[in-house]
Amino acid sequence: DAKTTQPPSMDCAEGRAANLPCNHSTISGNEYVYWYRQIHSQGPQYIIHGLKNNETNEMASLIITEDRKSSTLILPHATLRDTAVYYCIVRIQGAQKLVFGQGTRLTINP
Amino acid sequence: SAVISQKPSRDICQRGTSLTIQCQVDSQVTMMFWYRQQPGQSLTLIATANQGSEATYESGFVIDKFPISRPNLTFSTLTVSNMSPEDSSIYLCSVDLRQGSEAFFGQGTRLTVV
Fold first, then answer.
1. Looking at CB atoms within 10 Å, which of A29, A36, A61, A102 has the fewest?
2. Contact criterion met (CB < 8 Å) for B42 and A100
3. What tens-digit pLDDT sequence spans chain B (114 residues)?
4. B108 contacts on A by Cβ (under 8 Å)
5. What Cα–Cα distance (Å) separates residue A63 from each residue in A22, A30, A97, B70, B102?
């Protein structure tokens, strides 16, 4: 079973920051938080991952709380092409398997 | 990154028949993964394909229904056997370039069984 909880859907206005929350209250010390997204009819796409420090790349920022029980994915300037299902996954470093939850369906509105 | 090609991209099949899906990667990888995504649902791991050994199946999936081949480090096939309409799903191939790194996915095979 997935170890994460996400809201089923969210809306965001184009150009604004999209903040997607994820709860992972049972996360272990050696588990990383990964984020993927799936645009309609495509395979999932890796976005970002982190252990305990905040991370940023060209796509997004990941904010992990100090107790690591929750995190937020931030898309700083959402565009219509960011409309997708976003999956938050916890995974042991070195483990291969990904366990997907139901994700958050993010809709960016013009 | 890795480029993953899946064939076919989609197919419509008669019940009782079998379909073999191919997954080709542009680099050598130790493990390849096969997922199923039923309509409106999330992804579920079917099995892990290891080169040179039998695939490892997740609970609820069996080799007789989903036989997997892994002849080399860049290629794998998944067969959906004796299909029924309940097998209508998107089947996705995935790889990790190195242990614990981000996973890369193919574009999937959309299967409809009629």
1. A29
2. yes
3. 789 999 999 999 999 999 999 999 999 988 899 999 999 999 999 999 988 888 999 999 999 999 999 999 999 999 999 999 999 999 999 998 766 678 899 999 999 999
4. 41-43
5. 10, 17, 23, 39, 18
